[in-house]
Design a protein that fits this description.
By secondary structure, this protein is of the alpha/beta class. The protein has a single domain, classed as TIM Barrel, CATH 3.20.20.70. The protein has helices at residues 9-16, 25-34, 53-59, 75-84, 111-123, 136-144, 155-161, 165-181, 197-203, 214-223, 225-235, and strands at 3-7, 39-42, 66-71, 88-91, 127-132, 149-153, 185-189, 207-212. The model has no long low-confidence stretch (mean pLDDT 96). The protein binds pyridoxine-5'-phosphate.
């Protein structure tokens, strides 16, 4: 079973464009769950241009599926996650002003830092995942940080998919095998879409969760949120 976690950052971006509460982020999150999403993901960034820190506090008590908070483990982020205690925290190595996550961790260079941060989260009972590319060394070393899972950064797959799907997916299949071999669960995300998701799902073993935001929210403009979530869920069967 591969779970679909809907990343609702784009809903917050739309809301923030006018300063009011439309669309209502909490209501959208609950509707995503009602329409079949098996998790909700948020990525609060330091400038709060998408999801705000307060949104994260507000979402926690109302969500009934797995809450996943992504972000760079700055002091303020760590404090937020420890207080909110989501089901999962996904650590990304984003510099503060970046448009969207654009690289995975160097788990060798940052092993000590990650180990320390992850130990803190684990002591609060929070599942931990590290955002990572397909380099086998980085994946095997991720296990040394104490992380429960890795999230495979799928941008490289998505951008190469059209030209040669088999070639695009091969490093991800091998990465998933290496992660599983090292005792790590496998999540994936970034630029997954209705076009490429089913192929990814069919070709990458051990896939526990995908988190999808941009394409899903764009598709919802045409198909509606309920239909869109159902369509994405069908790609995972
Ligand atoms: N995973 C991580 C770590 C991300 O930063 C993002 C984007 O916020 C996603 C997954 C989802 O990517 P997309 O919006 O392209 O579906």
């Amino acid at each position: 079973m591969t779970k679909l976690s809907v990343n609702i950052n784009k809903i917050a971006t739309l809301r923030n464009a006018r300063g009011g509460n439309m669309p209502d982020l909490l209501r959208t999150a609950l509707d995503c769950e009602r329409y079949g999403a098996e998790g909700i993901t948020v990525h609060p960034r330091p400038d709060e241009r998408h999801v705000r820190y307060q949104d994260v506090y507000d979402l926690k008590p109302v969500l009934t599926t797995e809450f996943n908070i992504e972000g760079y483990p700055s002091e303020i982020f760590i404090d937020l996650v420890m207080k909110v205690k989501p089901a999962q925290v996904t650590l990304v190595p984003d510099p503060p002003g970046v448009l969207t996550s654009n690289a995975g961790w160097d788990t060798i260079k940052h092993e000590r830092f990650l180990k320390e941060v992850i130990a803190g989260f684990k002591s609060c009972g929070i599942r931990t995942s590290v955002f990572i590319e397909t380099d086998e060394k980085m994946i095997r070393n991720a296990a040394k940080t104490g992380a429960d899972r890795v999230e495979l950064y799928t941008e490289a797959f998505a951008s190469a998919y059209k030209a040669d799907p088999q070639k695009a997916v091969l490093p991800f299949r091998m990465a998933a095998e290496a992660a599983n071999d090292s005792g790590l669960g496998v999540n994936a995300g970034h630029d997954l879409s209705l076009e490429n998701l089913h192929f990814f799902y069919q070709n990458v073993p051990h896939l526990l969760e995908v988190s999808i935001g941009h394409a899903l929210i764009c598709d919802a403009l045409y198909y509606g949120l309920e239909n869109t979530i159902q369509m994405y869920l069908r790609q995972l069967k």
